[in-house]
Write a structure and sequence with these properties.
The chain is mostly helical and 233 residues long. It contains eight helices and no strands. The termini are close together.
Length: 233
């Protein structure tokens, strides 16, 4: 699924565009660089790859260093997610049993063996209930574990959780099609590149353009702010 910028990013870019210099106010060198940046942005938004060496050619030194730093941060986030707390395994093991029994039930139901299917549906429901009880226990013991799940953990009777596999919380690292979200901090390398190029274009067109030395001092801080905006829905 293709990501779209959210309102916060659109507003940020709109504010930048409202203060943009006209194309005629750019030098020939700046116009050429703008064209190259727009070409790369078009390719990236179409899902095509843009090599790092091209980015290094058309981003400023500070902008490219910012891109590298942000991708390194993304890799660190992925390393953190690989170090999944052991407590979650208890829940996942019980959820796997529920899913297994539900799949068996679906298979028997398809074959018209409804009596046998009902037994497996009931077994799946019991495993779901057991899994939710386990999940409630581990979250009560360590509330920070909630960040590892794809949805709010509302254990009230009228909450969104249910006793079918699709209604059960998934760990954000799960590959299940029933997982609702991933870690909100995660961005693909292409998304990091898009953010870097969009910022470079905005900085190039800004009315309050600064000289090279001042720009070099400011770009890292500005790029950090731009990247950290939660702009992927």
């Amino acid at each position: 699924m293709q990501h779209k910028p959210n309102t916060k990013l659109r507003d940020l870019l709109k504010n930048q565009k409202a203060k943009n210099r006209k194309l005629s106010a750019l030098s020939k060198t700046e116009q050429n660089r703008l064209a190259k940046l727009n070409t790369m942005l078009d390719e990236l938004t179409r899902g095509e790859n843009v090599q790092n060496r091209r980015l290094a050619t058309w981003l400023t030194e500070a902008e490219y260093e910012g891109f590298e730093s942000d991708w390194e941060s993304q890799q660190q986030i992925r390393e953190e997610l690989n170090d999944k707390p052991n407590e979650l395994k208890r829940y996942e093991d019980k959820l796997k049993k529920a899913i297994f029994n539900y799949s068996r039930a679906e298979g028997y139901s398809t074959k018209g063996k409804h009596s046998t299917a009902k037994k497996f549906y009931n077994s799946s429901e019991r495993h779901c209930e057991d899994a939710l009880e386990t999940l409630q226990e581990i979250v009560a013991a360590d509330a920070s574990l909630q960040m590892w799940f794809d949805r709010a953990l509302d254990f009230d009777a009228d909450g969104d959780l249910g006793l079918t596999p699709v209604a059960m919380p998934r760990v954000i690292t799960s590959r299940s099609l029933d997982r609702q979200t991933t870690d909100s901090r995660l961005m693909s390398k292409r998304e990091v590149k898009i953010a870097a190029v969009e910022w470079a274009i905005s900085a190039l067109l800004a009315v309050d353009a600064v000289d090279n030395e001042e720009r070099k001092e400011q770009e890292n801080a500005k790029l950090r702010e731009f990247i950290q905006s939660p702009f992927w829905e």
